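User: Fold this; tokens only.

Assistant: Input:
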Amino acid sequence: MRLSVYLLFARLILILVILHVLIKLHEIQRRNLHHELSVAAYSDENFKIVQEIFSIYTTKSGGSFPQNLFRSLEGMADKDKTPFLIGAVGTNGLKQAKIATIKKRQRVLHQLLAQEAGITIEEVYNLYEEECAKLNEYADENISMGKVPNRIFLMIKDIIANKTIEDIQIDVRVTINGKEVNNSKIEKIITSTKEKIRITMKKETLSEE
């Protein structure tokens, strides 16, 4: 009786192990399928580069090309993927994957700066060129739009607060019925408005030079 119980228990354990392995294999297949589908959506130019990458890698190593590069390129515009794909030809793609990941994190920091300043990403590159270069130093950290360390977020706040262009000083106040009103929401609107005024004045200055 006791032996039968042990055998039954052993069978249950074996079944659970097999199920665990099957689930893991299924998850891996789903992830690989996702990357394969994303590659299939590449432009003709990029897809030809991918075919060249696979051909050379298979000939040299005889194995499957690592998926790291394609994971790192997800979410990028098609034209932005091209340099990384070209750089990966004849390699395992890991170096280009790392570079692409850092570039994406830099973009996140620049987008956050644009969001907090209330301006477009193009205006950020025009207005905060030096500050963007400084923010790039933090792209080695694991950063996404929903995951930014508080110290970096505070640094971005300081960048916006301390930024001046061509010594332009702008004073914006909001009054209702003659009484000055100020709160966090209004302050954000004021900051955004001041930045847009500065950008407009800078463009006017550049056009006159």
